[in-house]
């Protein structure tokens, strides 16, 4: 697995569904090493800590492989052109990772990077801010149907992360699969 992009954002007000809300979903790629602390990446914020952030949701990782799906459905929904790529961080993720897939992740698995170690803690549940970021009201529903949720990670060993870092998956107890937990939390099982 390779970290293809490291993404951060500061919380800012946006107009979503006719109301002003604070959000940091619009993550932007950063160059060079980024410090990883127990509560997340340096330069990154979470606007609503009741659903994002904290020790168990310090970092959000998303599989790069799913970007083609979202590009396609955005074009089908006529909110972008067919060849209009989504930039890294568009899912609100801190780490865009090539070679990562929710079906291979279990709660307690560790992503061992050269500069830090992260642990899979739970799936990301989509909300209205995700709909706004992707550009159409059914995006959350499509995330639920596809299971393309990504993973929240806790920080086991703080340090740093850089785009291009190789990650090694270290198996946890293999009791709860990430995608199965995602579907259970959404009442889809």
Verbal overview:
With 189 residues, the chain is an alpha+beta fold. The chain has one domain (2-185): Beta Barrel (M1 Pyruvate Kinase, Domain 3), CATH 2.40.33.20. 17% of the residues lie in helices and 30% in strands. It is built from four helices and 13 strands. The chain has helices at 67-76, 128-134, 139-146, 178-185; strands at residues 2-8, 12-16, 19-23, 28-29, 34-37, 40-41, 59-63, 95-98, 110-112, 117-123, 151-157, 159-161, 168-170. The chain has an eight-stranded mixed β-sheet with strand order 4-1-8-7-11-10-9-13. Strands 6-5-12 form a three-stranded antiparallel β-sheet, with no helix packed on it. It has a two-stranded antiparallel ribbon with strand order 2-3. The longest helix is centred in the middle third of the chain and has 10 residues, at 67-76. The model has no long low-confidence stretch (mean pLDDT 92).
């Amino acid at each position: 697995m390779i970290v293809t992009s490291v993404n951060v954002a500061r919380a800012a007000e946006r107009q979503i569904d006719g109301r002003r809300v604070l959000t940091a979903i619009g993550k932007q790629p950063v160059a060079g090493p980024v410090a990883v602390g127990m509560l997340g990446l340096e330069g990154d914020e979470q606007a609503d800590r009741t659903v994002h952030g904290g020790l168990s949701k310090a970092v959000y990782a998303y599989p790069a492989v799913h970007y083609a799906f979202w590009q396609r459905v955005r074009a089908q929904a006529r909110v972008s052109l067919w060849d209009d790529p989504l930039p890294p961080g568009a899912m609100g993720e801190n780490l865009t990772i090539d070679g990562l897939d929710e079906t291979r992740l279990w709660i307690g698995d560790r992503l061992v990077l050269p500069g830090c170690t992260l642990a899979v803690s739970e799936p990301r549940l989509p909300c209205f801010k995700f709909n706004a970021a992707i550009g159409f009201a059914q995006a959350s529903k499509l995330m639920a149907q596809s299971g393309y949720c990504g993973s929240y990670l806790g920080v086991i060993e703080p340090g740093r992360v850089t785009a291009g870092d190789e990650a090694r998956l270290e198996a946890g107890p293999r009791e709860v699969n990430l995608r199965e937990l995602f579907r259970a939390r959404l009442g889809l099982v």
